[in-house]
Amino acid sequence: MENKKKQELKLAQTVSLRHDLRLFSLLARPEAEFLAAAAELEADPLFARLLAPGPGGGAPVVRRRFAGASYAFTLACGDGALASAAERCCAGEWLADRPAMLALAKRAGQENFSRYFLADAVFDAAAAARACGLSAAQAAALKAFTDAFILAHERVQPAQLPRQLLRCAALVEAEGGRLTAAYTHPAYLRGAYVINGEELARLLRGGTLSRAEAARVRRLASAAQRVSWRKAGFHRALAALLEEQKDFFLGRGPLKPFSQRALAARVALDPATVSRLVSARTVRAPWGEEVRLKDLFRPKSAFVIDRIREVLGGAAAKRTDAEVAASLKSAYGIKISRRSVNLYRRKAGL
Fold first, then answer.
1. Residue 186, exposed/middle/buried by CB under 10 A (0-12, 13-18, 19+)?
2. Rounded to the nearest 5 degrees, what angle is found at the Cα of 38, between the Cα atoms of 35 and 39?
């Protein structure tokens, strides 16, 4: 008995995608070029038809949020250069309300703001007002402004955006012993596209598209998969990297030994793909510093050498390799031989 054909084409790293030169080209593009390509896809009138309900009642293409994805509204809205670019692009006089709306968002707090003003759920002004300490009128005004600002931000040409918002992928915040990461560009907040194969086939067979339009629809669906694959891959890689280096961002310890190959295995991507996804990207740490994603990877040897330095303190000449090995095991749980300690000490000049 044949297995029932899947109704949705899941976004995954398949053999065909690995050999898709257009996908590799998209992965290799700088962030500004990638965002421009994504915006061009969204602006295509025919693609808008794919996002609307089709003959069967469902949409051929559906947006799906990434789990835990948020938007750094206070960072983006507080940037005068972005506001100026948004005004030239597609915003209007509502930008005059930006300082007041930014103040309301800060009063609500990042967690409440994400829950009530960025969520996909139907907005409830009364519930948002109660939770955020605002009046119902203030909550409604903040929601309207937030939606308009996000739309304006996404439509601004990347060349007009502040360089930080292209270089810096997310704002990392620490609260209550946990990390949250808010994306600096709303394209990641909105998530990836999922192709509904049955609805797409129904649209193509429905006779409402010309032959040329049908061919374009297929190309647009393919392009949506590639855009989504890059965004979903970056989201998985960033989430796994922040989780691995959680203690570092919370100020509880140094960076752990972690390689790009280990990250690739964890998120089921090719190491070369991971390298492309994190290249030239940063996050803003809870203490305000920009940290390069590539700097969050650390060879095991560097980690062990740092621990040896801590064990030795100022008594390098007085401690034997065997004593250092014993101290590494008792203090840090690092199990290495005396000979390995000797190799690390010689390599580091200890």
1. buried
2. 85
Provide the token pair at 339: 């000979």
282-284 vs 168-175, strand pairing mode: parallel
Closest CA to 274 of 234, 232, 226: 234
Residue type for 220, please? L
* Residue 198 · residue 56 · CB < 8 Å: yes
- Provide the residue type at 331 as one letter: A
What stretch of H or E contains 169? strand 168-175
Sign of CA dihedral 155, 161, 166, 170: negative
Contact 169, 183 (CB under 8 A): yes
Would you say 185 and 206 are in contact if contact means Cβ atoms under 8 Å apart? no
User: CB-based contacts of 4: which residues, under 8 Å, 6+ apart?
Assistant: none
Q: State whether residue 83 is helix, strand or coil.
A: helix
Contact 57, 200 (CB under 8 A): no
| Residue 170 near residue 72, CB atoms below 8 Å | yes
HSE, side-chain direction, 13 A CA sphere, residue 150: 20
**Tens digit of pLDDT at every position of the chain (350 positions):** 445 444 444 444 444 444 467 777 788 788 999 999 998 998 899 999 999 988 788 899 999 999 888 999 988 888 888 887 777 666 566 677 888 999 999 999 888 999 999 988 889 999 999 999 999 999 999 999 999 888 888 888 888 888 888 899 999 988 888 888 999 999 999 899 999 999 999 999 888 899 999 999 999 999 999 999 999 999 999 999 999 999 999 988 888 888 888 999 999 888 888 898 998 899 999 999 999 999 999 877 677 777 777 777 766 557 787 877 888 777 777 777 878 777 777 776 77
Residue 70: name the closest of 157, 155, 225, 175 by CA: 175
